Amino acid sequence: MNNTLAVYQKELWQYFRSPIAYFVVAVFLLGTGYFFTYNIFSTGIATMNETFQSMGILLLLVLPVVSMRLFAAEYSAGTMELLQTLPLSPWQVVAGKYLGALTILVMMTVGTWIDLVPLYVFGDPETTTICAGYIGFLLLGMACLAIGQFLSALTENQIIAALFTVSILLGFWFVGHLESFQSAPGLRQLFVYLSFSRHFGEFVLGLVRTEAVAFFLLVSAIALTLNTSYLQWRR
């Protein structure tokens, strides 16, 4: 636990020493504020449903900037070899870096709470639906960061890591649309099950289903396990 905490503290220091964390959080909050304002004034309905959908897509675009440096920066700086010689297991390295990235995700999430103030002042939103939306948002972010961290471990170039991550995340988001092009029921169910947007959409509607929670946790666990196995193989 102490080793994981040490890696976690190092990651936070790295994030806030550079402008990456400030840039990502600022861009995300500005984008969320814009979508919130637009949705409220265009629909006249005091809900977070449309804003959550916009937040989900925006998340796919900004989180790769957070995850791209997790391992790629270590490779390019030549510090990965030093990290591997320390008395740290691959899992401790992966967990520490992942927790550091999750901290940025939590900061982004908390920052959007300012949008809730006018909702409760001028409207009567459903708190349970909003809570479900935020649970889905965090689970979606956890899965995205796990995938991005694994892809960062596969390359020394941060830009390539970010581009691959964006491409894969967008693929998971839109894969459900391929359902209508499939005649085999098994393939149709598979595409629907793999769709990030379908599972996230259930949370936005206020449904916290075990299947959706398990899906995002499973994706995160698989990506982190692959990440750990790859680091073990590099040793």
TrEMBL record:
What cellular component GO annotations does this protein have? Answer: plasma membrane
Membrane-protein topology: Multi-pass membrane protein
Residues in coiled coil: none
Compartment(s) of residence: Cell membrane
- GO terms of molecular function: ABC-type transporter activity
Which part of the chain is the ABC-2 type transporter transmembrane domain?
Answer: 4-205
Residues annotated as transmembrane: 20-45, 57-78, 98-122, 134-153, 159-178, 214-233
User: Which keywords does this Swiss-Prot/TrEMBL entry list?
Assistant: Cell membrane, Membrane, Transmembrane, Transmembrane helix
| PANTHER family xrefs | MEMBRANE COMPONENT OF ABC TRANSPORTER YHHJ-RELATED, MULTIDRUG ABC TRANSPORTER PERMEASE YBHS-RELATED
The identity of this protein, by name, is ABC-2 type transporter transmembrane domain-containing protein
Q: Which organism is it from?
A: Candidatus Entotheonella gemina
